[in-house]
Amino acid sequence: MMINHRLNRIFQGIFWVLVYLFLTLLPVLVMFLPPRPPGREFIREFSVALGFVGLAMMALQFALTARFKTIKAPYGADVVYHFHRQISILAFVLILVHPILLFIPQIHPVSILNIFSPDTPWRARFAVTSLLALSGLIVMALWRKPLKIEYTRWRIWHGMLATAAVAFAMLHVLGVNWYINEPWKRLLWAGYSIFFVGLLFYTRVWKPWQLLRTPYRVREVKAERGGSWSLVLEPDGHAGLQFHPGQFAWITAFNSPFKDAEHPFSFSSAPASDGSVRFTIKELGDFTQRIKELKPGDKVYVDGPYGAFSIDRHPDAKEFVFIAGGVGITPMVSMLHTLAQRNDQRPLLLIYGGRDLESLTLIEEIEELKNRLNLRVVYVLEKPPAGWEGETGYITRKVLERWLPPERRKDRTEIFVCGPLPMMNSVEDSLTKMGFFSGDVHSERFDLV
């Protein structure tokens, strides 16, 4: 059964990769199909091909971030967002090289970049405006934190700049009108434009409207260890959503879903028959510090579920290992609660690292779950109390070697890792060196930008 599940995901993943490559290269293929305009210099043709590929990549970025569950299912949301980030840089390079190749042999003078000159044609102004918008988008994405740009404000600017970059680039292509000299070729770019506008409508109108129709109400806000708050929500006038333990959702509070004010958090509860859900959120930023201000009855919007970080994707595993740091414990607790709900008695190991005992969020629930599951728990404390006999310091390879099962057989032990990025990188590197199969190690990264 596990093989069938894995093969199905592999085939789905390959299918979407091929679709992406086809849509990315299609403009170039059409560019060279007859009837073609009179031939021009190779460097000009090559420059245009790079521009077309870069533009197609930028248009497809909206599909990658539109949260289509079918597309994200084979990979997991964090992998798709990582790809979105990296492919944006590649698209930017291709689009930047496009005009540079035209300036080197002086096919076009550099003065054409002056959008305020009356001699500059509108197609060139569209191109420069698009490139400026794209440059701003890349700078803000790569250096958001050093520039201290607040997340919600960044999301608004990110969307505006991305829309402007693609829209002005499309106008540039239409203005040049060299490689779309036939009606059916123009139809291709009309299709890309409709696709682009359709995605904008879906993400900015249709999806928020759907969320507006399926609100949640706050049932409880509870203080937890580690500067965290558990937010319990119940569906208001609908059945709620169905999720797999370990998945996450985007929640919007204090605002309408039409505003770019949503944030991703893992479920920290098992799926409930009444549709209620719980998120346990650590105070780390402007939004998370306001969670405690919510009151019972307040309206909250939940968009989900998303993510491939779940035990349900590995039903035939012989045992599970959970390695968590800080608030990375929340998806682990969701999975543990679900296993207890199912009376699953497979061997389980939880390694949970934190600064001290007081920083270990949901530790009381973990201790209670030990009575219902075949669960071993190892706490790793940086600052242990007096008389502590457990693990100290960080979750190192030595700690992992002491506690993880000795058997390294593929598909036997599924390992889930979530926590601060340095911890996750270190743990994943240690697991690889210890001989665990990379396909059996699963991680969830929320540092999307």
The outline comes out as elongated
CATH hierarchy class name of the largest domain: Mainly Alpha
Per DSSP, what share of the residues sits in E-state strands of 2 or more residues?
15-25%
Instruction: Tally the structural domains.
Output: 3
Biggest sheet: strands side by side, in what order? 4-3-6-1-2-5
Mean pLDDT: 88
How many DSSP E strands?
A: 12
Individual helix count: 11
Which structural class do the helices and strands define?
alpha/beta
User: Would you tell me which CATH topology of the largest domain applies?
Assistant: Four Helix Bundle (Hemerythrin (Met), subunit A)
Question: Percent of residues in helical segments?
Answer: 40-55%
Major β-sheet annotation = 6 strands, antiparallel
Low-pLDDT stretches are none
Describe the structure.
The chain is built from eleven helices and twelve strands. With 449 residues, it is an alpha/beta fold. The protein has three domains: 2-211, Up-down Bundle (Four Helix Bundle (Hemerythrin (Met), subunit A)), CATH 1.20.120; 235-306, Elongation Factor Tu (Ef-tu), domain 3 (Beta Barrel), CATH 2.40.30; 314-443, Nucleotide-binding domain of ferredoxin-NADP reductase (FNR) module (Rossmann fold, 3-Layer(aba) Sandwich), CATH 3.40.50.80. The strands form two sheets. Strands 4-3-6-1-2-5 form a six-stranded antiparallel beta sheet. Strand 1 and strand 2 form a beta hairpin. The protein starts with a helix and ends in a 6-residue tail after the last strand. 34% of the residues are buried.
